[in-house]
Amino acid sequence: QVQLAESGGGLVQAGGSLRLSCAASGRTFSSDAMGWFRQAPGKEREFVSAIAWSGRTLHYTGSVKGRFTISGDNAKNTVYLQMNSLKPEDTAVYYCAAARWFSGSYVSTKWDYWGQGTQVTVSS
Questions:
Q1: Among 12, 88, 104, 124, which is most buried by a count of CB atoms within 10 Å?
Q2: Each residue of 68-109: pLDDT tens digit?
Q3: Cα–chain-centroid distance for residue 60?
Q4: Residue 11 and residue 104: Cα distance in Å, rounded?
């Protein structure tokens, strides 16, 4: 059984930083890409960032470019999200995700595995 486990969420003041971590486990686990989505109360889950292992290409949604940095290790099935200059609008539950076959889609239904989520709260 595949499991994704996130850690690193918390409460931080605006302008602060947090680092999220995610580790995947399971004998059958393999992925083309791993990434992060987030969901704020009353809103749909949205794409934040991803790393595609082939070519190690990085993907970011516009609102986090220049502030968030994704990194990871394909061999260790781990992905990280360094979040700097956090804003109150970044407040959400952040989900780690993995795609068996990454077509470049940022639609959540195209991703196969999900973590349980970790809360990030940014106070103003």
A1: 12
A2: 999 999 999 999 999 999 999 999 999 999 999 998 889 999
A3: 10
A4: 31
